[in-house]
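All the exercises in this workshop are built on plain-text protein records. A record pairs a protein's sequence with a compact description of its fold. The structure tokens are whole numbers drawn from a learned vocabulary of backbone shapes. Once this layout is familiar, the rest of the handout is easier to follow. An example says more than a description, so a record of this kind follows.
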Amino acid sequence: MKFKWENHGTMKQTTLAWGLVAIIAGFAFLPGTSLAADPDSGVAAKKRVMLRVVVLGLPGQGKPMVTASQISYPGGSSYRRFLTQEEYGQQFGASPKVRQKVMSLKNRRGVRQVSLNPTGTAAIVVMTP
């Protein structure tokens, strides 16, 4: 059984029209347009505080890439002997002096929060601009 479409032109025009309506509706609700609801308008905008999150890679100790190669080499004595987070932090994390210096950033103006990751290889600082 063959289907015969009648009035191809009207169907294409209808599809095209609905496609254009969808595109226009999508643009109308983008931020910055007059139809979009603006959560930052009015009094709430004055109370909103902009925060910046900065991720710092900390200088570490040891040679983690050499250890990773030894763990992944099938003929090696360390093959598949994975480190725990605590072991990784002790071997490759930042020194106590570096950790203390990073944590002292809490005392700086505009800094809201400072936290170290469990291995001591990175820090997250939340601050106001």
About this structure: The chain has five helices and three strands.
